[in-house]
Amino acid sequence: MFLEDCKVLENQKVGEDYYLMKIESKKASQHSKAGQFFMLKLKNEIRILRRPISLHYADKERNILEFYYEVKGGGTKEFAQLESGDILNIQGPLGTGFTTQLKDKKCVVVGGGMGIAPTKLLIDELKKNNEVIFIAGGRGKEALNILSNLNLEGVKTYITTDDGSLGEKGNVISVLSKVLAEEKIDIVQTCGPHKMMEAVAETAGKAHVFCEVSLEERMACGVKACVGCSIKTLDGMKKVCHDGPVFDSKIIVDVNPKENTGCNCGN
Questions:
Q1: How many angstroms separate the Cα of 192 from the Cα of each of 94, 110, 214, 237?
Q2: Are 192 and 218 in contact (CB under 8 A)?
Q3: Which among 25, 59, 95, 169 counts the fewest CB atoms within 10 Å?
């Protein structure tokens, strides 16, 4: 984990409330893994807590970290005001990431809405030595603007939207069920709304396929200092920020946090 002052290179608005921020990071970028997250410091001293943002991409050759976020509250609104040349203090990378050290496997990555953000790095790492199938879903076309920033060359991709404005009208579960029925899949990895991930895990479980879920949205302090992100597992209570955010779906009993702090990656 690093504490690092980073220069903002870009902070582009890519939708009504969506932004893609790129920062220069000579240290943290070299140690980042798909599924990990960072705690970003706000300049407004009234907002004491840093804001957790999942890692979108890490370019180790150019020392660049990318964050894709949606403006929902005062914290992310402040991030949206950052301009090229501004300095942003980051803490990370934090947490346990996805399993990517695989070879000759057939992998399915399922992303929903803002949960698509961590899949850019995940897909890049997986497809070096594996076959990757990507299933993306969202409310509508704008929620999937992020797809244009992913490198999906060589990846079999399925897109679904609730309103049918992009791809197939429907949801990711119907597509996942079809893929699992037709192909021999080795692993399913997912990030998105909890209800979606629960359905993904259940669907993978019925097909006897190992599944990893990312609960990166359930975090407050990010450094194991509170109980805000505690979840119940077969191995006892676990903290998402320290023991996760990526978990084997089979060990999770209750994804709801023990204490609702009101602070998550959407603030």
A1: 19, 8, 8, 22
A2: no
A3: 169
List pLDDT tens digits, range 20-66: 999 999 999 999 999 999 999 988 766 667 889 999 999 999 999 99
The 3-class secondary structure across 182-228, one letter per residue, is: HCCCCEEEEECCHHHHHHHHHHHHHCCCEEEEECCCCCCCCCCCCCC
C-alpha 258/C-alpha 224 separation (Å) is 13
Q: How far is CA 257 from the centre of its chain?
A: 18
- Using CA atoms, how far apart are residues 248 and 171, in angstroms rounded to an integer? 23
**What is the tally of helices (H) and strands (E) in the chain?**
5, 17
Per-residue buried b or exposed e for 6-36, using 16+ beta carbons within 10 Å of the residue's own CB: bebbebeeeeeebbbbbbebeebbeebbbbb
Task: Write the pLDDT tens digit of every residue in 161-205.
Answer: 999 999 999 999 999 999 999 999 999 999 999 899 999 999 999
DSSP annotation of 152: -
**10 Å Cβ neighbour count for 60?**
12
